[in-house]
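Quick note —
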Amino acid sequence: ASYLENLDWDEWPVHDRVYAEEGIALFRRGLEELPGAAEDYSALFVGPAHLEAPPWGSVYLDSDRVLFGSSLLELRDFYRLNGISCGGREHEPEDHIGLLLLTVSGLASDKRDDLAKPLLSEHILPWGYRYCEKLNGAARHGLYKGLSVLMKDSFDYMKKSLALTVAERRLYI
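Predicted structure written out below.
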């Protein structure tokens, strides 16, 4: 938590400063009440109940709304064809939003916009905005509400700064 508490928010690239400031304020308030985040974390990301904001792309993009669906196979093909490795946990699908954003971050650090752009426009953004909307609606703790706002604003920033055209995909949730 100390790393997050010491982030230089003035360096955070934003699309809409007012909207991002709302997310930053929620996030900071959430950090002050961190012990209360555990219950929300379980409800949002673990279960056992139905997850209101599942963090896996295939749940949004596949008609059966399942993990390890056809959209995950497309992502794996993209990774394989482009020599991208995903360092997730053994049983965590590669289309988990956290793993995807970690991969985009690595590609950006390596100055690989040629790979970051299609990863964003074809595999993340088609469902990422809906995920942010669902996360914001389901989250009770400021940490996760703030995260949803910052993630959406970051998507807007990347879309504009990289001049991305988001692939049109049908969403099932």
